[in-house]
Design a protein that fits this description.
The chain is of the alpha/beta class. About 50% of the residues lie in helices and about 15% in strands. The chain has a seven-stranded mixed beta sheet with strand order 1-9-8-2-5-3-4, with helices on both faces. Strands 6-7 form a two-stranded antiparallel sheet. Strand 6 and strand 7 form a beta hairpin. The relative contact order is 0.17.
Length: about 325
């Protein structure tokens, strides 16, 4: 059980009160409010602006600074949109969620159902793209609940509340620590499992595979699960449609795994394949990713790109709004 700090309860009450308020506001008011707050956070958050500009420079080296800055600012605003959608994740507004999220024609539900029909369970590969909390909720409302692995929040009050939101409607939250046994059990019982692998991973848990032309320490859990269980891996993402407040779910066909019998090499090869799907989505929707995360912090030799930029080595004026 997490130790409670004196400020955990006030922070929880403040966050929950704000989300509840946004949840009852008309969207015509909720979107500008949350987008405006996100824009203010962007202006005040010099640390993550710098990190975001470094990452954008790595991913899009041929782009100019103004384009990178505009993408970064919009990625903050997208999190304002995310707050609006999370505020609607409750039984009272289930019909609204159903009406606003659809599957992409040709790259949607049919790919998931085809993979599901083969072994009864699917391993979802996904990332922090757009309103990622909306993806499992909308998919469950379409009749396909799943379990997904998360890192618990440090605030126990927020953690309990967010878990209730994420568990609706019929989904199951698996804490990241000691989750493998429950994942294996769930897959054997016909339950789908989702994992996000787009953030930096400690060396002991990851493999170094390409992402945006640079080696990135990436969690090998999806590859290990797939190789041990033979359940198909389906990359799935959510992204904004043209009309604000509408979203599409994209499921790629299941990934053809490489099996040579060398476990370490197979984990690396298949994780590299998984990263290509994440990179494709981010390149298509660059304003929808979390650029402020130090994605390339764990290194397999070489210098720290974030330390270099702090010293002026990369030439990014990343603290300018």
């Amino acid at each position: 059980m997490k130790r409670r700090r004196w400020f955990d309860l006030p922070v929880y009450l403040l966050v929950r009160g704000f989300v509840e308020l946004v949840g009852v506001m008309p969207r015509i008011l909720a979107y500008p409010l949350c987008r405006g707050i996100a824009g203010l956070v962007y202006l005040a958050d010099a640390k993550h602006r710098r990190i975001g500009m470094i990452n954008l420079g790595i991913a899009f080296p041929d782009s100019d600074e103004r384009w990178r800055r505009d993408v970064l600012r919009e990625s903050y605003c997208q999190q304002g949109h995310h707050a609006v959608e999370v505020s609607r994740l409750n039984r009272r507004q289930a019909s609204e969620v159903r009406s606003r999220v659809s599957y992409e024609p040709g790259r949607g539900l049919e790919n998931y159902l085809e993979a599901k029909s083969r072994t009864g369970s699917v391993i979802f590969l996904t990332a922090h793209v757009s309103c990622w909390e909306l993806l499992p909720a909308a998919h469950a409302l379409a009749g396909h609940p799943l379990s997904f692995v998360v890192r618990p929040l440090d605030n126990p009050y927020l953690e309990a509340w967010v878990t209730r939101i994420r568990s609706w409607p019929g989904n199951r939250v698996l804490p990241k620590r000691h989750s493998m046994r429950r994942i294996f059990r769930g897959l054997s019982q016909g339950n789908d499992v989702g994992l996000l692998i787009d953030q930096n991973t400690q060396r002991k848990d990851g493999v170094f595979v390409p992402l945006f032309g640079r080696l990135a320490s990436t969690h090998a859990g999806v590859a290990a699960l797939a190789l041990r269980t033979s359940h198909p891996v389906v990359p799935g993402f959510i992204y904004p449609a043209r009309r604000r407040g509408r979203y599409r779910i994209r499921f790629y066909p299941s990934v053809d795994l490489v099996r040579t019998g060398n476990d370490a090499e197979d984990a690396r090869t298949n994780t590299a394949r998984f990263n290509r799907y994440i990179e494709e989505m981010v390149r298509e929707f660059p304003h929808c990713w979390l650029w402020g995360h130090r994605r390339f912090h764990t290194r397999n030799g070489g210098s720290d790109p974030y330390a270099e930029s702090a010293a002026g080595g990369d030439g990014f004026r990343a603290t300018s709004p």
